[in-house]
Each structure stands twice: as C-alpha cells, then as structure tokens.
Amino acid sequence: MQLPAAAVVHYGDGEGDHLLATLLAECQQQGWRVRGLVTQQGKDPEGILPMQLRDFHTNEVFVISQNLGRDSRGCSLDMGGLAEAGKVLRHALGEQPDLVFVNRFGYGETQGRGLSDEFSQLISAGIPVLTLVSEKYLEGWHAFSAGMAQTLPLEREAIEQWLATVRPQHL
C-alpha cells in the first residue's frame, strides 16, 4: 500500500530546501496542482534576517520569526506568524490539490503545536503530503504519523520514486 505522506530526512541546516523547491516546480510544470509552504528564508545564523515561508501557489510571503535581539538564545519562531502561514494549508484542504508540501515537520509539531493540526487534516483527507524532517525530530515524526507516512533520504531519485506513486490520474 502506498502511503499518502512522506518526510525527507535532512540534517537541520536547510539542505533540501532547494532540491524540494525544484522538484515541486517540475511537478507544477507537468500539470500537478501543487499547494503548500516552501522556505523563502531559513534561519539566519546571525539572527538578522527573519525566517520566511512562501505560499508555493500565490507567492505570498509569511514572516515566521521574531527578532529577540542579537545575543538571544531563545527560540525566535513566531507562533502567530506560523499560524498565519497555516492558512495556506487549511485552504489547500478545501481545494483537494494533487500534492501539498509543508516546509518542515519540526519541534513544534512533535509537541502537537505548530502546523500539526494542518498536517493531520491533510493526511487524514488522503491528500499526498511531502515535508522535510530533521534527524533529531525523526522519532517524533514516526510517532505523529503513526505508520501513515514514509521517510525518504535526501536524494532526488528516492523523492521522484515516491512522487511517481502518488502521481495524479489526470496527468
């Protein structure tokens, strides 16, 4: 049985963002109805640039971090900004697209926060969902997805093979 969701395992430094954005664009060019959130600006090691997500369909950008100051060690993720970005996924649920991409399954989702509700709703609706998960949150992903998702290596061929199994019938 093909599982409707997959997480691509990365090492936590933003690797994978470019590959996944490229593959999503290729799917869209082939006629797939792709929705979701891609990383526009990842975590800045200097803490100057805000983290941003981009709606893959409309290109609307969402700032999901707050400036805590240069020497801050706290989590800069802005849950309000993330909730605002989550509207993209909630809207996708009603559209029934061919594929939804969510930029990350991270710490918040392992705790039942962040975009965990949106992930659950999309997977439960049988809409193919693709995401990235850091090795350090892989156990949380397995617990969250409860056998309803695959994990994939950060390799183009493996991701393309999974995409071929969820390829929409209208293509």
Task: Summarize the SSE layout with pairings.
Elements: E1 5-10, H1 17-29, E2 34-41, E3 52-55, E4 61-63, H2 79-95, E5 99-105, H3 107-110, H4 116-124, E6 129-134, H5 138-145, E7 149-152, H6 156-165
Parallel strand pairs: 1-6, 1-7, 2-5, 5-6
Antiparallel strand pairs: 2-3, 3-4
Properties at a glance:
171 residues, alpha/beta, seven-stranded mixed β-sheet, 6 helices
Description:
- The protein is an alpha/beta fold and 171 residues long.
- Helix content is 36%, strand content 22%.
- It is built from 6 helices and 7 strands, in the order βαβββαβααβαβα.
- A 7-stranded mixed β-sheet has the order 4-3-2-5-6-1-7, sandwiched between helices.
- A hairpin with a 5-residue loop joins strand 3 (52-55) and strand 4 (61-63).
- Helix 2 (79-95) packs parallel to helix 4.
Could you tell me the radius of gyration in angstroms? 15 Å
- What is the H-and-E element order? EHEEEHEHHEHEH
Label the overall shape.
globular
Distance between the termini: 21 Å
Helix content: 25-40%
Question: Mean pLDDT, as a whole number?
Answer: 87
- The unreliable regions are none
Query: Given the helix and strand composition, which structural class is it?
Result: alpha/beta
Share of β-strand residues: 15-25%
Number of strands: 7
Described by strand count, sense and barrel closure, the largest sheet is: 7 strands, mixed
Number of helix segments?
6
Order of strands, widest sheet:
4-3-2-5-6-1-7
